[in-house]
């Protein structure tokens, strides 16, 4: 891919200049710190306030609840945040005319798309790693037994899920000049894929199955490995980037 490294460096500088890396990392860190603290101390706070006798209603909080709560929140808010970051990746540059200027140079359209995907992907990876480390560390401090390996696997699967959100949003970003349209359709597509995982027969092959598998790994439950869901997720990422490249070549930039 001609010009890939140059474009990738440009995109990384853009991520830094616009503080996107700091914002994404900050959100993951915030929930990585706050969820274990909330899980551990919220029942005590409620009981001290006299609002409810927590001990008679709920079982004591556990490390599993802390880690699962973090991932559940980040799969929702993290997906939305990543879509907001990715929705202007191509649409914004098409709208401003920057894309036409860049693509008039000796660079491949495929390099243009892949560089943007890699840059947003690196921003996401940094956020996931920081959130994973901080959440696990705080949970170790606050609770006795903390499943390290299962939580690691769950975060890897979450990263794959978020990578799909990036690729799908970039696909729509290449089709529309409107960032809002790209973000809205990217979010709708991810939600539909997630809901479709509840369908019989085909659901276990769809990306939403990654979430169920991750929860099973975290809890140490015996469950069928969702490798086909991993394969389908990777295939959808590649296909989305391929379509984005194809659309850019055929449309007026």
Number of helix segments?
11
Rg over CA atoms? 20 Å
**What's the structural domain tally?**
1
Strand content: under 5%
Low-pLDDT segments, ≥5 res: none
Largest sheet: none
Average pLDDT for all residues? 86
Net shape: globular
Overall SS class: mainly alpha
Gap between N and C termini: 19 Å
Instruction: Please provide the ordered H/E string of secondary-structure elements.
Output: HHHHHHHHHHH
Defining traits:
single chain, mainly alpha, 11 helices, 79% helix, 253 residues
How are the secondary structure elements laid out?
Elements: H1 4-17, H2 20-49, H3 54-57, H4 63-86, H5 91-96, H6 98-103, H7 109-142, H8 148-175, H9 179-196, H10 209-219, H11 227-250
Brief overview, please?
With 253 residues, the protein is mainly α. The chain has eleven helices and no strands.
Task: Walk me through what this model shows.
The chain is an all-alpha fold and 253 residues long. The chain has one domain (4-250). The protein is 79% helix and 0% strand. It contains eleven helices and no strands. The protein has helices at 4-17, 20-49, 54-57, 63-86, 91-96, 98-103, 109-142, 148-175, 179-196, 209-219, 227-250. The longest helix is centred in the middle third of the chain and has 34 residues, at 109-142. The chain is globular and about 65 Å long. The chain starts with a helix and ends with a helix. The model has no long low-confidence stretch (mean pLDDT 86).
